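Appendix B, Record 12. Input sequence as logged:
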Amino acid sequence: MTVEELSKSIVEQVGGAGNIASAVNCMTRLRITVRDDAAIRADGLKALPGVLAVIHRQANYVEVVVGPGKSRRCMDVLRKMGIQSGANAGANAAAVPDASDGRIKRAMRLFGQIFAPLIPGIIVSGLCAGVAAMIAQLAPGYADNPTLSVTYQLLTGINAAFMTYLSAWAGYRAAEAFGGTPVLGGMIGMFTTLENVNAISKTVGWYNDAQPLNAILRAGRGGLIAALIGVWIMCKLETAIRKRMPEALDTVFTPLLTVIFTLVPYVLIIMPFTGIISTGLCRLVGAVALNRSPLVRMLAGFLGASLFLPMVAMGMHHGLIALYAVQLETFGYVTLYPALAMAGAGQIGAALAIAVKARRVGNHRLCGVINGAMPAAILGVGEPLIYGVTLPLGRPFVTAGLGAGFGGAFVMLMEVASTTWGPSGVLGAFVMTEGPRGALPSVACYLAGLVISGVIAFFITMAMVQGDTLQDISC
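Logged structural output:
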């Protein structure tokens, strides 16, 4: 199928354009909100060539995995068909999931709803920081070379352009998710990093001139955790104020009072309190990921990488963003993410083993799904393999995690650290440039971990999955 044919077939299988309330694409999938859930034909969607997986866990909402790049092109076709698109398509389904979901699971999904649109910026900034670190290590005198110097400054500038205002981006998205005014949420988030916070801290006697990082209140204190809590409070206040504000005054005074009434408790209470939480999280993660005992680090890496795929399948992996962000804001690097990135390599190894066995029994449909998902998996986008191959088959999902665990143990043992989170697979090598051994050894250990994960997952899957069970399976 061409992209246009595939897009039109997807629309047909969800009840036609008239049944689609809104749609939006992420990196790998179309997220479609429909008016009549009964009109969705999940089996018909799965049978379409080019559809790698279908996720229909919530009423009036379905996700169709087609792979990176193709998801955007499909969305362009849907727009031409007159289908409404917007950043909040699927937001209601994500914010109000099935009743069977617990509070923690709902919170994790809402966290993902907030941060999913920020992933491209996270990836770009991290890649630029990683390449800049490699330039600095390979060419210590780069500042004397005009070409290298300009390149370095551009790369570090791109990284700073995103990371400096990450709390503002998060605040904007949080306000959208919580039902507030997005730009006001962005203002609350941005205020977190301003020098005005240090001036306030000095005025009330909370600033530590000798050790600013230990101050009760300082710019950046609490980071993303503070921004999200502050914006949630802001949205509640905005709703309460608007109910009581005369319509003629609403446009001016509701946003003004909302921001003022939010900032006072935000700066004086929320930022100091969440700063304590952030410090505690850093110490907790550091006690495991930066432990001086190799055995403790290996165990942490094995368990983290082994359990990461189930977290992704349940949509709970976005909850780890808080840990990543706190580490990055505090230390300038992330130690947990490199181990978890091994999960993708474990899936590749397991999928290759399934492909070998499926080919032997003549299951060409399954082989086609694996072939379609493999390029994305190699580049670090593992969702097509999760929802299209390993998770539906069950046992390979487990063997992929087990194989990834060995790779996670290795990279944690070697103390690999990253400049950000998001890029994985072979592209992840460009951000794995931190760690006590330097940029190049860290990258080499990361790549070695990918190989370990894939190879072990391949052989475990070959041993645990019987070929005859794949003969009639169509994922």
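The radius of gyration is 24 Å.
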